[in-house]
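Same chain as my last thread, 154 residues:
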Amino acid sequence: MIFRRYANISSQKNPEQLKAHFLGQHLKIHQLDFEIFEKDGMLKVIPHAEDDNHIYTLPITRLKFVSNGNGTTIKMLSKPRRIDIGGPYLLMIFILFALVASVLLYYLGEGQYNNTAYILSGIAIVSFIALWIRMEQGYFDYIRKIKKWVKQHA
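reply #2:
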């Protein structure tokens, strides 16, 4: 949902040429190897993170080739791996509950819990900023670099 990213890339080549060119290729991003292979008629860019010690949220990117009149449109869908998304979703749920609790304390507390509401909303905002910065440095950076690589090779 919130972590999915879509992109469209145009190319002058036909879909068969692009598939043949991309299939089996490897790309390296931040010392991590990504492989492109075909599954269910689409190409997937899958990270090889079996040997990596660091905890990252990594994307799986699907490439769908749609033929148009004079070339091909590559439709990209990037979403987190199922194994990685639990942490960010759990943190987003905490942030949402903290914001709801702070709003309820502010409006229903009749002025007695205003400081608590401010502190709780501040914690939620700081947590969201920390999550977003971490995702920008990792997950979204991987997506940007995969998109750039596909654009260069299309």
